[in-house]
């Protein structure tokens, strides 16, 4: 598949800072040691060592800013090789437009604590005050002081956070149609998207239908059909529909190319029922699964914040994601037969995540083209073909969502868990999910928080990075929910159970 690049390629600039009453050589040598440790561990690609060591002078700060900008850096590490100049270093953070991180050097040895002591441990405190004073967003690791090897690890941990934050500053969410009736939860205020730097383009379903019809007989269709045939293999139950699917996929790709404007990255949210099937003659689920495999998530039911959440997970994980309904509980007989005694979960820790068929093929244990059974009950099977059905492959997952409340305030949730190797015996793209203390999380975070039924899924454990991204973009820490362990009560949880 010819993939579209839709997440940032990072170039992280490392600038060492130095306070003028400390030896500048401390910061220079520690910076060199840091870069040596990083390149030995993680390679030299995507990182840049700024040769300028800033002292207290704001002029040097401007020189460093010019240097990392000219080098094409889109993320910045401000490295306190010694105490550091709180004014110049935070001015640098203020003027650099991309994501930034502050870390500091630990002392090397007890044998050199007179001329060789740097006091970055102390300097980080002063930097924190200036960061707050200038109202800056910056990432500071849980313990931001370390030797060269540990600081190299911190930079590597910063990379997925920086990728998501930088991408959000350059992202456009393109939607087609209004939210379906009785999907009020997906109809969240979009003011907060603009506040975090995301652009929104809303279009009519008629615009999409017109663009689709214009591509009938497009010469690119046969090659895309062949690609789909190879991907589907024995699961290709509707070969006669593949030209239409290819035509629709090209419609979306052309629309993105013609409408992304100056934005570098795009995600989509589309109206997929009830009129879609009558006008297009199929459901878009399979095509949507292929789009996310290109790095372009497509949220169902015009869920703008679902699309935004999916893209964040894509940027953090550097892998495909999906959007699922937090759909149904696991039947007792199914839990007893397939989970109890085999996995360390209570019945209330489990649930089934489902959507019609938008999960990429690579994340399904087995898959085939089918029709959408729920819609078929109203419209018949002929115009509801095009779901990619199968059980989601077992493995680690992160379930999460960024959302706006009705009064336009950002909030989010994130929980790590897994998809269990338990047959679902159901339809759609579906899996048996397990998240520790899910029952309490469901009641006191999701229901109490007024979250919609859609949750984004990243394939792996990425809670730490997601939590930091949500903090960075301005979600209040008290509004980031997670699955609290037993004994740690939610605000609304009855202490008597």
Count of DSSP H/I helices: 16
Strand content: 15-25%
**What is the rounded distance between the termini?**
52 Å
- Strand tally is 18
Measured as a percent range, the helix fraction is: 25-40%
Radius of gyration: 25 Å
Q: What are the segments in which pLDDT stays under 50 over at least 5 consecutive residues?
A: none
* Largest sheet features: 6 strands, antiparallel, barrel
Shape: globular
Sheet with the most strands: spatial strand order: 10-11-16-15-14-17
- Average of pLDDT: 95
Structural class designation: alpha/beta
Structure description:
The structure is a single chain. The chain has helices at 24-42, 58-70, 86-95, 120-133, 148-168, 191-195, 205-214, 221-232, 242-259, 275-280, 285-293, 304-317, 332-338, 373-379, 438-447, 463-472; strands at 12-17, 47-49, 75-80, 100-105, 145-146, 171-176, 199-203, 265-270, 298-299, 321-328, 350-355, 368-371, 385-391, 395-404, 410-419, 429-434, 454-458, 480-481. The chain is globular and about 80 Å long. The mean pLDDT is 95. 49% of the residues are buried. 37% of the residues lie in helices and 20% in strands. The chain contains 16 helices and 18 strands. β1 (12-17), α1 (24-42) and β2 form a beta-alpha-beta unit. By secondary structure, the protein is α/β, with parallel strands linked by helices. A 6-stranded antiparallel β-barrel has the order 10-11-16-15-14-17, surrounded by 4 helices. The chain has a 5-stranded parallel beta sheet with strand order 2-1-3-4-5, sandwiched between helices.
